Write a sequence for this structure.
């Protein structure tokens, strides 16, 4: 459970997206990630509280159905599926960008297509193969981040590489200040920070199948929260201390840049391989979630019953095939508009993820209200400061949604979200009317 959540949440949002964030906001990106981390803490504690009290397969979509409304549950389930198919599109796009390190002229869509085919094969063989591959993918990225932090600490203390001459804590404020591009640059990076953390809520999907949820869920939530925040904030802090933020570019992973700048070309190549496997790891976990969500929606009658089918190896083959074909649209996008693919896709993921986050917050508020009306005691594992912490989450969601409107590429996420919500509303209404007739 912990490795899957780490695998989902530590991906291109850190390894590639942070490069664009540093380029836009400089050291102020640390505050953006800290705010996003605080939101994640509130979300995971609230989700964990509901999961310990009443574990459900489907987790947050089921809690939205129970505590908010059936319509909210329907929209949340399908929107999370959208998030889980657009997420792999962004990850595959990043894999194409990473391959440019070795093959600058390679079309971006080629590695994206190869990666998609390989992952489809892994999922089709068995669930066990997925679990094994995701464990090792997640372990590689964790080792890489820890290695970067240790490497940066050695540079700062000893100055043993070329970076050592410029490695200094003052890099956080000397190159134009801590907010070099003002509040506007910081505001625009909120979406990047939120995108980086989207996926950690996947822990809620596995919670319903956990043995002894009263013990395993609090432990998993606590470990995932501190690991992700430490990895993100710690890694970004090191990156912006070992050299001025102005040396990083938006289209190259800062993890690769720091080793290249240190004169360690071999290490830079290894790190590029690590960030490539990181992208495949997040794509791997997202495809698993999307196929299982689609299977679950079919089981609940919210998707065609034909998708409620498994192979002899207990793999939801039809749901997996539909999910893979949907993710394949990202390969086509990379063929048609490679320069805009990554930022556009991340904006769609952010918009859909923000809906999920807001529904978790609303569900928890209604959950607490129901407990109060019933006179039931609060769970031992709970979200501190509720409902104010839930209000903080919703306020941050609104702020990030507003930030999406300030750039043409990110504005696509808002347009897509509006069309998606309208489509789901139509489907829900028609489905209910047809059910009444029959």
């Amino acid at each position: 459970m912990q490795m899957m959540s780490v695998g989902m949440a530590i991906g291109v949002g850190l390894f590639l997206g942070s490069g664009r964030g540093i380029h836009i906001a400089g050291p102020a990106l640390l505050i953006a990630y800290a705010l996003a981390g605080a939101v994640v803490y509130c979300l995971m504690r609230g989700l964990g509280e509901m999961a310990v009290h009443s574990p459900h397969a489907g987790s947050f979509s089921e809690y939205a159905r129970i505590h908010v409304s059936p319509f909210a549950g329907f929209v949340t389930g399908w929107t999370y599926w959208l998030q889980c198919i657009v997420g792999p599109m962004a990850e595959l796009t990043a894999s194409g960008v990473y391959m440019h390190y070795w093959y600058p002229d390679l079309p971006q869509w080629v590695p994206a297509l190869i990666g998609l085919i390989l992952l489809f094969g892994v999922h089709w063989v068995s669930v066990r193969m997925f679990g094994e591959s995701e464990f090792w993918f997640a372990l590689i990225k964790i080792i890489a981040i820890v290695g970067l932090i240790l490497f940066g600490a050695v540079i700062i203390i000893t100055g043993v590489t070329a970076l050592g001459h410029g490695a200094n804590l003052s890099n956080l404020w000397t190159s134009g200040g801590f907010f070099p591009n003002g509040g506007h640059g910081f505001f625009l990076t909120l979406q990047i920070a939120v995108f980086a953390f989207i996926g950690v809520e996947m822990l809620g999907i596995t919670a319903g199948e956990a043995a002894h949820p009263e013990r395993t869920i609090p432990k998993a939530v606590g470990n995932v929260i501190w690991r992700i925040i430490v990895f993100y904030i710690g890694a970004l802090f090191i990156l912006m201390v070992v050299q001025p933020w102005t040396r990083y570019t938006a289209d190259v992973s800062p993890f690769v840049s720091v080793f290249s700048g240190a004169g360690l070309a071999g290490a830079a190549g290894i790190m590029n391989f690590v960030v490539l496997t990181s992208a495949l790891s997040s794509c791997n976990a997202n495809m698993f979630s999307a196929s299982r969500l689609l299977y679950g929606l079919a089981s609940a009658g919210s998707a065609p019953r034909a998708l409620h089918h498994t192979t002899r190896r207990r793999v939801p083959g039809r749901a997996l095939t539909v999910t893979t074909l949907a993710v394949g649209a990202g390969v086509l996008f990379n063929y048609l508009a490679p320069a805009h693919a990554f930022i556009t896709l991340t904006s769609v993921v952010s918009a859909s993820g923000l809906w999920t986050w807001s529904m978790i917050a609303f569900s928890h508020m209604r959950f607490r209200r129901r407990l109060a009306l019933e006179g039931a005691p609060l769970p031992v594992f709970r979200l501190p400061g509720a409902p104010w912490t839930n209000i903080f989450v919703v306020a941050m969601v609104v702020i990030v949604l507003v930030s999406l409107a300030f750039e043409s590429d990110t504005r696509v996420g808002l347009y897509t979200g509006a069309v998606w919500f309208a489509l789901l509303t139509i489907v829900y209404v028609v489905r209910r009317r047809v059910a009444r007739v029959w």
In short: Residues 338-374 form the longest helix (37 residues). The chain has a mean pLDDT of 83.
